Amino acid sequence: MRKPELLSPAGNLTKLKIALAYGADAVYASVGSFSLRARSGKEFDMDSFAEGIEYTHKMGKKFYATVNGFPFNGQIEPLKRHIKAMGELNPDGFIIATPGVMSIARELAPHVDIHLSTQANIMNYLDAKFYHDLGATRIVAAREMSLKDVINIKERIPELEIEIFIHGSMCFAYSGRCLISAVQMGRSSNRGACANDCRFKYELYAKGENNDTLFRLEEDESGTHIFNSKDLNLSAHIAKIIESGAVDSLKIEGRTKSEYYAACTAGAYRRAIDDAVAGCFEPKIYADELNTLKNRGFSDGYLISRPFEKSDSQNLQTSISEGWAQVDAFSEDGKTFKAKGQVFKNKAYELLSPANEKISLGEDEIGRVYQKEGKTFVEFKKLIGPTGKAFESVHSGNVNDICLPAGIPPFSFLRSKTENKDEK
């Protein structure tokens, strides 16, 4: 069984390194205002973007640059300069949404592969062939496409790579083609500035034909988040997707999400892919890990079942819910950590580390690292900085580096169970 690529979001250089450490085969990122995630694009400048590409290639993995915004006429010349500069950094592909931008990329950076963004809404083999003939080597299928249709496209155009989304935020509009943010907030989602208006709480009013009186429709709390889509989670279907032989890349959404999100999703789906290929697929394991994340509720989207067959794709209660894990600390170097929540002495914190990194169990003057019920934990005897300064506890407002016990890998997280959560 052929392994598809696992493609993770890289919202900044640290998230890029985390995703690769936790098992991603490739990452995608952007610089500037020509991407649909302008906020994450500000996390990179050209120097750090070049560093990210170099770092990724040194690890033998791939880097895709997103240029999938919809430019106005006045942006064409700056866009040309942008694509030329990006091409000189030698990413492995450009993610592009329009034929015009494709033509610019082919002219100015012919050595860079073109991947057609999901914003192009590819749903059938005719459109897929059209863009393939224009030079696209890969299509990112519309989230509304079924696996049956993905297979059909692959059978008809076997040389065309197909990428699908497997996890992350879902837009209530068709393949992200939304104007609500632009109308209400003056921020265009199609140019990377979505204000997430669909996540807001709304009240409904009725107006009579013969007067201008407005009456508020009575609602309970379950009826106010009327646009709010649940998050996509296809972890339970990874084995079926791989068995189809039609999918070349499995993509995780979320460039603006946290370092922990980058680690958790890459690690969970890395294991799901490897287990599926090895014939030991266990969906509950991956679901339990992904349930540690903040989410809007999970849905398996439309790849496996048709849209009209589904009635659970919206979360009408709240715009977001806590996962069962509180992230208390993050360590980039494995020697010290910075607090993300609260860390106390003599309290056990579960350790999340890259799967291929060795963890040394044991005890030293700072604390101990041990295993219990198949999980690894850290307890601190002391909370001290590299200079020896001692703390009774540390929290997210404390910017000091705090020393870790020996044997903890880089890019590790300390987490604990959120209050009032019963998940194991």
UniProtKB/TrEMBL annotation:
Q: From what superkingdom does this record's organism come?
A: Bacteria
Alphabetically list the UniProt keywords.
Hydrolase, Protease
N-terminal signal peptide? none
Against InterPro entries, the record matches this protein to: Peptidase_U32, RNA/ubiquinone_mod_enzymes
Give any Pfam family that matches. Answer: Peptidase_U32
Q: Which family does it belong to?
A: Belongs to the peptidase U32 family.
The protein's name: Peptidase U32 family protein
Q: Which organism is it from?
A: Campylobacter magnus
